[in-house]
Amino acid sequence: MLKTRLLLAATCLAFAASALAHSPEEDAVEYRQGLMTVIGWNFGPLGAMVKGKKAFDATAFALHADRIANLSDQVVEGFPKGSDKGAHTDAKAALWANFDDFSEKAKAFNTEAKALAEVAKTKDEAKSKAQFKKVAEACKACHEKYKND
Amino acid sequence: MLKTRLLLAATCLAFAASALAHSPEEDAVEYRQGLMTVIGWNFGPLGAMVKGKKAFDATAFALHADRIANLSDQVVEGFPKGSDKGAHTDAKAALWANFDDFSEKAKAFNTEAKALAEVAKTKDEAKSKAQFKKVAEACKACHEKYKND
Asked: In this predicted complex, what is the ipTM?
């Protein structure tokens, strides 16, 4: 039984390895793009509620805000040294030339996203929507300067 | 100032929209693949510690385990109706034919991942590693049946 379990675990580790099958730098590009997609997936319903395209649902708002806050912790590690290469990165050269400024902007996003998760817990619609806009501005501040469309 | 902020927010919502620029079904495929990549990114260091390729670091172990637990909440929503189409999905036809079984397996992964996050908080190395293997088995149980490599 133990042997079977170890075998299963080994096979599954191979799965995980094949999911990240490239160089560490290419893995980082794939990781950070995946992370942005997952953030965007959760950002979508919040944006729709803020723009009035969807009715405000305090529980759903808080759920997605909490996820974004957690995901926002994971941004900077997706930009290790050497991951500026490769055809499919969307990071501008300016990001690597201004890494401290990039890190500060990522930190600002993290801070605003955590604040959004806290505000959303109170279920206050106006405050939640106002704080969402601060998160959106923090996205934009970084993307505009450091991300190709 | 308010006007500027609203403008900024609108622009940023457009960013989010362009990140998810396809049909809802294609967005779902991109989302679930991104999610798997982010899970894999966090799974990697745990696997390395369990296999002894990296020294056990209880704090790092708990951090990645906690992230995986949170991410594991988000799996099933990546498989909405209609997202079985498209050239680049890795989901087997069997997944859609056995959706209840798939959902149960995803739920089992969720349960084992939550348990891992709890065990990892205790910083008990042996128990953490043992529970990691259960998570890995839960990955495998689902991937083997429902995911093309």
From this structure: 0.87
